[in-house]
Amino acid sequence: MEKPGVTAIILAAGYSERMKQFKPLLDLGGRPAIERVISAFKGAGIADIHVVAGYCKEKLIQALAGLSVRIIINDRYAAGMFSSVQAGVKSLDSSSEAFFLMPADVPLVRPETIRYMVDVYSRRREKILIPVFGTRRGHPPLVAGRFAGPVIDYDGENGLRGVFGLYNADIVTLPVPDSNILLDMDTPEDYASLRERLQRINIPTAAECDVIMSDIHNVTDAVIGHCRTVAAVALFIADKMNRRGCNIDRELLMSAALLHDLAKGRPDHAVESARIIRGMGYPAVAELVETHMDIIPGKGETVSAAEVLYLADKLVSGDRVVSLKEHSGRAVDRYGDKAEVVGRISIRYENATAILNRIEAQTGALNISSRIKAGALP
Predict the structure, then answer these.
(1) What is the pLDDT of residue 19?
(2) Can you give the three-state secondary structure of 31-67, one letter per residue?
(3) Residues near 212 by Cβ (< 8 Å), separated by ≥ 6?
(4) 269-279 vs 283-290: helix axis angle to the nearest 10?
(5) What local confidence, expressed as pLDDT, does residue 323 receive?
(6) What does the alpha-carbon distance between residue 352 and residue 312 come to, in Å, rounded to a whole number?
(7) CA 227, CA 262: separation in Å to the nearest integer?
(8) Cα(75)–Cα(48) distance, integer angstroms
(9) Please, are residues 4 and 89 in contact by the beta-carbon 8 Å criterion?
(10) Of 202, 211, 201, 213, which is closest to residue 282 (Cα–Cα)?
(11) Residues 6+ away with beta carbon under 8 Å from 148
(12) Low-confidence ranges of the chain (pLDDT < 70)
């Protein structure tokens, strides 16, 4: 299906009163916040980008030089954000079938989220599409062009929320696996949190993993339960290793464990899960997930996060922690009449045992097998 012509309207005209600094030009990872917003839209394939300026417009115009955006001046910015919304919507031309409305102080929304919204909109035109994370609505809404007139003409209360309230039947809420749609920087504390979040932007949070599994891909409760137990076992092992001087990235490992069976039930599900995750913008997570079924163990002392995930997966049957021998035995009982499959099971058991031995040699007192028998693992 042909995709609609979409314009991004970025609202950057306000006073930034609570921040005490002009928010669009605050540094985020070596770039102004507004440049990150613009890059997100460009990364999603949107070329028609309008930036509404007002307060500090000279500094903003200078900062935007060379970024190939259209600058719209809102001389009424003192009237509030909705005046900037109206100025931006007035700037639309006839080629704009729909438009995003994005405050410049919501700078970490992923390009993949914007692209996903456009893809969904292309199948549900003439609507107002609002991204949702969990139960909370966030930014940016994607609005059908037919609502441009009502936005421009509206003079009631509550600004854009008031306009949307007139068209509740046309609003579609869309779950997205991106908590950044909720993160603005109204205050210095918000700004500090965003800077911290930026450091791990390429790793989904546990909450984002839950949305990916439950709301986006409708994975069964049984598979989700298995993934959560694998994550608990993997983090137990990683913590023991890190106390002995190893450097396993807990966040990366946790995310990979929570998502590793995303495509369970499909052919070659480890590779398919990795493909989906990579498409979401998480290549490091995908790399671990891709080898959770079959891996070539390392030979040296260093044990990788991918090997920890591989081992943890072999220590869990359903949502129950088991020994490697029990896990392998159950698989053989299930596929005993298929020699090729049994051969792969044997190799996986040998690889997992080799990884376990290296971990226990390195940590000295992990004793996973004994802990399983004693019920001491999660």
Answers:
(1) 84
(2) EEHHHHHHHHHHHCCCCEEEEEEECEHHHHHHHCCCC
(3) 177, 204, 259, 262, 280
(4) 180
(5) 86
(6) 9
(7) 9
(8) 22
(9) no
(10) 202
(11) 89, 92, 96, 99
(12) 1-3, 329-342, 364-378
247: which 2 tokens? 């450097």
**What 3-state DSSP class applies to 28?**
strand
Q: Which two tokens stand for residue 268?
A: 């070659």
Amino acid in position 372: I
Q: Assess contact for 122 and 2: CB atoms under 8 A.
A: yes
- pLDDT at res. 105: 95
Number of residues written out for the chain: 378
State the virtual CA torsion across 339, 342, 347, 353 in degrees, nearest 10: -150
What is the rounded CA–CA span in Å between residue 378 and residue 204? Answer: 22
Q: Domain limits of the chain? A: 6-198, 206-374
Give, in order, the Cα–Cα distances in Å from 323 to each of 133, 326, 327, 375.
37, 5, 6, 11
User: Is residue 24 within 8 Å of 114, Cβ to Cβ?
Assistant: no
**Fold held by 206-374:** Hypothetical protein af1432 (1.10.3210)
The Cα–Cα gap between 366 and 303 comes to: 14
Element (H, E) at 172: strand 171-175
Task: Tell me the two tokens of residue 84.
Answer: 């900037």
Residue 11, CA atoms < 13 Å, CB-side half-sphere:
27
Do the domains spanning 6-198 and 206-374 agree at the CATH topology level? no
Q: What is the pTM of this model?
A: 0.90
DSSP 89-135: HHT--TT-SEEEEEETT-TT--HHHHHHHHHHHTTS-SSEEEEEETT
Task: Tell me how far CA of residue 209 lies from CA of 204, 260, 292, 378, in angstroms.
Answer: 6, 10, 17, 20
Token output for 246: 């190893």
- 291 contacts 277 by C-beta, under 8 angstroms: no
What CATH topology corresponds to 6-198?
Spore Coat Polysaccharide Biosynthesis Protein SpsA; Chain A (3.90.550)
Cis peptide before 140, with omega less than 30 degrees from 0? yes
- The two structure tokens encoding residue 9: 């309207």
Q: Token digits for 376?
A: 């001491």
Q: In this structure, what are the phi and psi dihedrals at residue 42, rounded to the nearest 5 degrees? A: -65, -40
Residue 338 phi/psi, 5-degree rounding, is: -120, 100
Q: Can you give the pLDDT at residue 1?
A: 46
